[in-house]
Amino acid sequence: MELLPRSPGEFGSARYWDRFFRQRGQRPFEWYGAFPELCPILHKYVRPRDKVLVVGCGNSELSEQMYDVGMCEDIVNIDISDAVIRQMQERSGSMRPKMSYLLMDMLQMDFPDAHFQVVLDKGTLDALLTDEEEATIAKVDQMFAEISRVLQVGGRYLCVSLAQAHVLKKAVEYFSQEGWVVRIHQMASSGDRQQFVLPVFVYVMTKFRKIPGTAPQILEIYPEEQDKPMRMESAEQLVAAVKDRQHYALLCSQISKTPCREQVSLDLCDKESGKPRYTLHVVDTPSVKPSRDNHFAIFIIPQGRETEWLFGTEEGRRQLAASAGFGRLLTVALHREQHYEGMGGIQAELSGKVMELAPPGLPARQQVPFLSVGGDIGVRTVRHCDSSPLSGEYVVEDVKGDGSCYFRRLIFLRNRNVVQSEARLLAPTPLQGQKKRRKDKKKPSPAEPPGAIDKSYLCCEHHKAMVAGLCLLGGPDALPGELAVLVVGLGGGSLPLFVHDYFSQARVAVVEIDPSMLEVATHWFGFSQGNRMQVHVSDGLDYVAKLAAEGTILQSIPAQYDAIMFDVDSKDLMVGMSCPPPAFVEKPFLQKVKSILKPEGVFVLNLVCRDAQLKESVLATLRDIFPLLYARRIEGEVNEILFCQPSPEGRRDPAELGARARVLEGALRQPGRPWDSSYVLADMLQAVHVL
To answer: Is the pLDDT of residue 22 over 80?
Structure first.
């Protein structure tokens, strides 16, 4: 402890370093960066004939090791400590005659201009730039100016650093503004030999003549064990990239010592594009008693299934980890923009990286199993990509579910973990398959999904519940006759299509704000308009307000709709309610909704709200407007379906609702009309309760 300075400023004091090296004696002192890990980087930038200057050399063995392996011999070492220069002259003078040690201040060097091809700094900048005080910054500017002066054009300043934020920012900004090429290397870690939790970096600043005007900056980073640099757009982006790697190193250190109390999530990015390639979640299960074979496993989520409850939620992943029976399970989600070479390719790509996330107590050389559903990585085929001013970028993709079923999905990329719309694809009949093969004259790929939409199948549980809510309509026979239904929010169109197809006397009006979604629903989800199905491209707020105003002006016009359904997402991800947008549940607007609903009608609302206080406020507002309010939670999801009725006289108990649901389902299940056998209307209403 007596070797530590009394203040950070003493790191720049010759008196402090004289005392330090006298007390330490002949033992070499290395700040960080062992030679075996530095060597591959040094070989890139130091040539045997280069004249090399080492600033702040101390009694590090770096220069001696470079000399001894033949990397370079013409090396000049300088330091402000007379004690350490004498030590190093005695230690190395006779053994390495072409290398010299000089007592010199790097802030005022005696060398002529353009005297060196390489300036090497191992921890010296870190020691000098201990704070951002004006006096400290002035010294650093002087240091950089002297390094620039003694370097030839094309020369390299190599700085080994822990890359503290203020140190990295200063170095990058200074040299990039001078027109130098700035490149950051992350040193490969050295396992148990690593002295610091934080990774060590090497700044490589290559001197170019400064071009008048605004020349483009060249800023690059070499991630650990990568042979190609990644180009950065700005100094801020480069600093952020280094910071990400430091956070990752801290995370690995932390979870290698103690179990995770909460699930840890991180992205591994593609080396070429820098875009996320894998999303990892670390899930620890303390209840699993460790044995040799159940410490750690990797679970590859099949493509397209990352949005399912078991894989896409914390509770689902916790259940998956517990059932797998491993103390730590690392789930891996694959991104749609990336290409993967099967399970073997993924395993080869991830094997080294995932071991950095291994749990404490993992036996040495323990083989870690890679798991998946059915042993493969699933199938995902992107059918269509586009963007719209309202919804942003979106994709339509086909994915393989359990067994042989395929599903078509609409995903908004601003919220890529949420399926916006989904439809099951029909398998082709044998005759259709024969015709297709004769036409194509080639055997279809087993990974090629069918194209026709199964309109009888509702993929979304909340859509099933919303349709079941129509049991609240009608008289004693529970069979509503002619229906006027308003659906706000089209998506892929499966909800209004189902109502249209199975309620043969229903007239359905759909309001959709984004014309691009009408095109998507028509071209990719089998949606079509007709006499009983009309789409109005409009803001739902404006459309309802217009209908309400017309009813007020012309008192002779009765309320129009038997059922009004809201299934519209919010474009503002900062709000704790993703469905519907807040304006749709404000009291004045809900009063307009009530005014265009028949007295015996039902207003069905898909509510997705993670903010408990906001949710309670929404429910209170609904109770003020609608005297009768039912709720139906969707198991495993945040969705809650609310059934709102204008009159309290229509209240029905669960038994009556179940009976009406069975009657209605019997009427909908007509001969020759397909019906999903797993869809039981009565089951949808069992969990309904009055609020």
So the answer is: no
Task: Please state, in angstroms and rounded to a whole number, the distance separating the CA atoms of residues 161 and 171.
Answer: 11
Tokens for 369, please give them. Answer: 């199993």
Q: Give the residue ranges of DSSP H helices in 101-234.
A: 124-128, 134-150, 165-177
Contact 138, 174 (CB under 8 A): no
Is residue 470 assigned to a domain? Answer: yes
Q: Give the number of residues written for the chain.
A: 691
- Which one of 22-31, 84-93, 580-589 scores highest in mean pLDDT? 580-589
- The C-alpha R_g of the chain, in whole angstroms, comes to 34
Burial label, 277 (beta-carbon count in 10 A; 0-12, 13-18, 19+): buried
Q: What is the per-residue burial (b if ≥16 Cβ within 10 Å, else e) of 493-525?
A: bbbbbbbbbbbeebbbbbbbbbebbbebbbebb
**Cα-based distances in Å from 656 to 476, 477, 605:** 10, 11, 22
Between CA 685 and CA 690 the distance in angstroms is 12
d(CA 165, CA 98): 37
Task: Report yes or no on 444 lying in a domain.
Answer: no
Tell me, what's the pLDDT at 431?
Answer: 39
Q: Where are the beta strands (DSSP E) in 413-476?
A: 419-425
CA dist 534 and 507 (Å) reads 8
| Half-sphere exposure at residue 647, Cβ-oriented, CA atoms within 13 angstroms | 9
Q: How far, in Å, CA of 412 to CA of 516, rounded?
A: 12
Structure tokens at 524: 């990719």
Q: What is the dihedral of CA 357, 358, 359, 360, to 10 degrees?
A: -110
Backbone phi and psi for residue 152, each to the nearest 5 degrees, phi listed first:
-75, 160
Indicate the residue type of 648.
Answer: P
Least confident of 53-57, 215-219, 546-550, 616-620: 215-219
3 state SS of 578:
strand
Say if 384 falls within a structural domain. Answer: no
Please tell me whether residue 610 adopts helix, strand or coil conformation.
coil
> What pLDDT band is residue 31 in, cutting at 50, 70 and 90?
low
Domain that includes residue 317, residue range: 258-371
Enumerate the β-bridge partners of residue 184.
203, 221
Distance CA 608, CA 569 (A): 9
* pLDDT digit string, tens, across residues 336-379: 888 898 888 998 889 888 888 888 888 877 888 898 887 678 88
3-state helix, strand, coil in the chain (%, to 5): 35, 25, 40
Do 674 and 540 sit in the same domain of this protein?
yes
Cα–Cα dist 181/209, whole Å: 11
CB neighbourhood size of 616 (10 A):
11
- Residue located via tokens 């989904």: 422
Identify the DSSP state of 356.
G
92 shares its domain with 204: yes
d(CA 595, CA 293): 65
396 within 8 A of 408, measured Cβ to Cβ = yes
Domain boundary among 371, 400, 421: 371
Same domain flag for 35 and 160: yes
Q: Rounded to two decimals, what is the model's pTM?
A: 0.71
Do 164 and 263 fall into the same domain? no
Three-state DSSP class for 447? coil
